[in-house]
Amino acid sequence: MTKQKHLVLILDNYFKHLLLILVVLINFTAHSDEVNKEAKKNIKSFPAVVIDMKKVLSKSTAFVTLQKQIQKLEENFKKDIKAEEDMLKKEQDNLLSQKSVLSDEQFKEKENTFKQKVNKVQSKVEKIRRDLESTMARGMQVIQQEAVKHMKEISIKEGYLLVFDANSTVIAADKINISNLVAEKLNKSLPKVLIDKNKVKQVDK
User: Fold this and answer.
1) Residues with Cβ < 8 Å from 111, sequence gap 6 or more?
2) Is the distance from CB of 11 to CB of 141 less than 8 angstroms?
3) What is the pTM of this model?
4) pLDDT tens digits for 95-127?
């Protein structure tokens, strides 16, 4: 019902924009006296790193728990919808069995009533789909914001001035890829997120 892979791609593109913003923030922060001194001490011969957000998410325990919760919600919704669909099927069979004994006007009236019930269930299914996608998006946003926080902290501490997206940058050196480091810090600060109705709660270690 929910298009999780589609959401991951959308939010991955969103994350690329965050990287551009992060570059500006890092450079801006590096101009302050204290941070600038620290950056000069730790500046690398190549003051740039890359990150693969898909890799970070795949290693994120919070992302795994989010997916499991979404899947559980989806399964529960499917059971509810299946029960309503079964009732509609019985009502449809009953309506068709009465067609020969009802006048055209009476059958048309019952048919319209039945169609309204079908439309109501279809609207409910669509709303559930939107709610699940929205909940998934909010959960991923919480995770990505935490990852961005760690990227910024690592960049300032180590003197990196630029952070590039690994999927759109051709750099062979693994030593400047901070995906694993960010994932490690992310799992410590945000081991899981909990879905609570319209809210996504951050659960610290």
Assistant:
1) 95
2) yes
3) 0.69
4) 899 988 888 899 899 999 999 999 999 999 999
